[in-house]
Write a structure and sequence with these properties.
alpha+beta, seven-stranded antiparallel β-sheet, Beta-lactamase
């Protein structure tokens, strides 16, 4: 009996010693795979983070932060993440709903402060929930960087902002929905949009990032590049981090909110985005803090239609990793691409952000991003 216990201890000790070597081998395989994927297409740089069993088990960066200076990309670099930003806005709304400051069924006209009615269906109320789920019948044809584009008092062509179907009956992805949402957050929280998100979402999760370029360390920005298919060269996209100090000096709460781009303006690292992802993966709680209730989290993650599989700034897809239905969102703008998806039952998730790559698509996803996600899954999760 004693001899058996000794043997068991030796075996356990041996496994304990081998575990770090196994992890190192897994990571080496993942890195070799990603470098091979990068060699097959045009990529400036990419940062990744992998979550397994609710913990960040791997972070790494590849390629360049800046082409002109040949500066390597590192894990502390922050990126604009485009449309994944919408979920931060929706999370903030759910907090205000829980505080009973507003309701998802409220008339968005009352919330935004000017008439929000599809002129083809004037008796149909457009609710806050319709804005968050892109079922408002609103489009971006008149632009979305100013709320004046849809305000009847400021744009004689406002009717063009509306589609030919009744609100709540169809889906069209629309950035204006979320820039209006940001203005509503200001009106009902009393805080400037970027500051509300910082104080109520980022700070509790110990995340560095935000919507206000002027409040962040510019030395950490990964330069964003747009790929030109004709020349096969990358062009710097400085507007991705355009300063807003002048607009902030003349800021009007609930009106000039789009300067922060609630629809796509979050700047964050892959590692910190993974922290945020863990919160949604755990139905609103992470870092010992509850950010939103389980009910609110489930509502955000529940598709309103099986056609689009889109909830409230979070969608479901079975087209990213074969055999898996994942929850999350993507983003793309100025040449950047971002991906944040998780499997809530198996407790794994993957974040991939590129500051520039060739936008070839595979079944609705950027092929480079999809291949990188699958490589990380194969080498670090499914082993």
């Amino acid at each position: 009996m004693r001899k058996t216990k000794v043997i068991l201890k030796i075996i356990v000790g041996f496994i304990y010693l081998l575990t770090p070597l196994f992890v190192i081998a897994q990571e080496a395989e993942a890195e070799a795979s990603i470098r091979a994927i990068m060699s097959q297409t045009n990529v400036v740089g990419v940062s990744v983070a992998v979550v397994k069993n609710n913990k960040i088990i791997y972070t790494q960066s590849f390629g360049l932060k800046n082409i002109e200076t040949n500066t390597p990309l590192t894990d502390d670099c922050i990126f604009r993440i485009a449309s994944i930003s919408k979920s931060f806005s929706a999370t903030s709304i759910m907090q205000l709903v829980e505080a009973k400051k507003l309701s998802l069924e409220d008339d968005a006209s009352d919330l935004i402060g000017f008439p929000l009615r599809n002129p083809k269906f004037p008796d149909k109320v457009i609710t806050l929930k319709m804005l968050l789920s892109h079922r408002s019948s609103i489009n971006d044809s008149q632009g979305y960087f100013s709320l004046d584009s849809i305000n009847p008092a400021t744009n004689p062509e406002y009717a063009k902002c509306y589609n030919n179907y009744a609100p709540g009956t169809g889906y069209m992805y629309c950035n204006l929905n979320y820039n209006m949402t940001g203005a509503i957050i200001e009106k009902y929280s009393g805080e400037r949009f970027d500051q509300y998100v910082k104080h109520h979402v980022l700070d509790p999760l110990d995340i560095y990032g935000g919507y206000c370029v002027d409040s962040l360390d510019k030395n950490r920005f990964a330069t964003i590049y747009e790929f030109n298919k004709e020349t096969t060269k990358f062009t710097n996209s400085p507007n991705a981090y355009a300063p807003r100090s002048e607009e902030i000096a003349h800021y009007e709460m609930g009106k000039t909110t789009p300067i922060f781009s609630p629809t796509g303006g979050m700047k964050i690292s892959a590692t910190d985005l993974a922290k945020y992802m863990i919160m949604h993966m755990n139905l609103g709680k992470a870092n010992g803090k509850r950010i939103i209730s389980k009910r609110s989290s489930r509502l955000m993650q529940t598709p309103l239609s099986s056609d689009e599989n889109y909830g409230l700034a979070i969608l479901k897809t079975d087209k990213l990793i074969e055999g898996k239905t994942l929850t999350g969102h993507t983003g793309s703008a100025y040449g950047l691409f971002s991906t944040m998806f998780f499997e809530p039952n198996e407790k794994f998730g993957i974040v991939v952000i590129s500051n520039g790559c060739n936008p070839v698509y595979d079944n609705g996803f950027n092929a480079f991003m999809k291949n990188t996600v699958n490589s990380l899954y194969k080498n670090l999760i499914n082993k």
